[in-house]
Amino acid sequence: MRNLLQLILRYSNFLLLVGLEVVAFILVIRGNKYQQIAASGAANAVTGSVQLVVNNIASYFRLRADNEQLLEENARLNAEIFELLNDQTRQRHDNDTATTRQRTPLASEESPYICADLDYSFVPARVIAFSDDRHHNYITLNKGRRDGIAPDQGVIGKDGIVGVVQSVSTHFAVVAPVIHEGLFISSMIQKNDYMATLHWHVPDIHTASLEDVARHVDVQIGDTIVTSGMSAIFPANMPVGVVSDVSLGEGDSYYDIDVRLATDFNSLRTVHILRYAHRAELDSIQ
Amino acid sequence: MIDWLKYIGLFLLLLFLQVLLLDNLHWLGLVHPFIYLWAILLMPIELPRWAQMFIGAAIGMVMDLFTHAPGIHMAGCVMIAYLRPLLVARYVQDIERMKGAITLQSIGPANYMQMLAVLVVVHHLIIFLLEAFTFSHFGYTLLQIILSSLFSYALILMLEYLRKNT
Questions:
Q1: Are A219 and A246 in contact (CB under 8 A)?
Q2: Complex ipTM, two decimals?
Q3: Which of B27, B50, B68 best tests the A interface by mutation, with the highest count of A CBs <10 A?
């Protein structure tokens, strides 16, 4: 017993090192599992405020580029409004004979997927910090619990999907972007609705790979990849990217597909967070 | 007491430099220097070793808060806080009589440069490998470690020279 105590005393420093490293390692493992970060409250009021101050200063130097982005998005939205107005007038003509005015049938009655209809609301947010050189990147946004943001809500930018909210504090949210190795995004090939999983690996932040596409499927360079709508995070048909490379080995049963991501994570300044109205209902039965 | 306030002030300054400037550089998605670990080098050597390790852990945890990845910087900082006295003992005969921070003057420029190189590389190895948490794309991670270590090393040496001359 005495010898044992002496041994422990003699190596106390080393044992302390081992103990502290084990604690750190447990933290790392817990943090690496995407689901568990959400519970650990990694979005923090203090760190968020500091990053907000930096971003407020830095954003003055990018005003011109930001304006151009916003103008571009405005133009796209205007085009969409015109398209919708045209649709509406056409429908009114069709419904002239109908006796009651009902809510027009939603697209979700035609397709089995959740669609971007009245059930989603959009919260605009600004990117105040991000990383692009890690395996598990992050984006910090200036909207939080106060604005109705909660973990597992989808985030989209002007070009396509951006990521999924990981954790929130009162004023800030941390997002796991598509360029996060722990994130798997349910997507489909737009032309034939074939489901596949999008997954990103280091180092190229512009390219991800599309997994689980069997060899009988028709897939070509230039095909558009969109979200599948199989979860409440993203509605169906949100742009994800474009197929940039397809290869199939002699004996392989699955393709190796590279997808050029629609979103440029380096120039991302403003995003929208998607809030799905029937989230609680869906979660309660799933 | 005054020394401790000075030390905490210096740590906050380093932390701000790290978080406000270096974490926002995004150099090619490859180079990410960490200079905050200079604070661990400046810890008084006469502290008991367990205290040095706990302070290292605390510094790492503060850094982890800013990078949204718990445990990674803590692991790196505890390791170099443990290694530092062992390395100093190689260069200084009577470590018992040594006091204060590890600086260019206190152990000599050549020794300092060697020791700093070892600590920076160990720290960066742990941090980048833990963040990756995989050996796939190991070449990329290795390149990140080498380039980032070089930049951190140069920046900390620069800071050390600046401190010496003021």
A1: yes
A2: 0.81
A3: B68
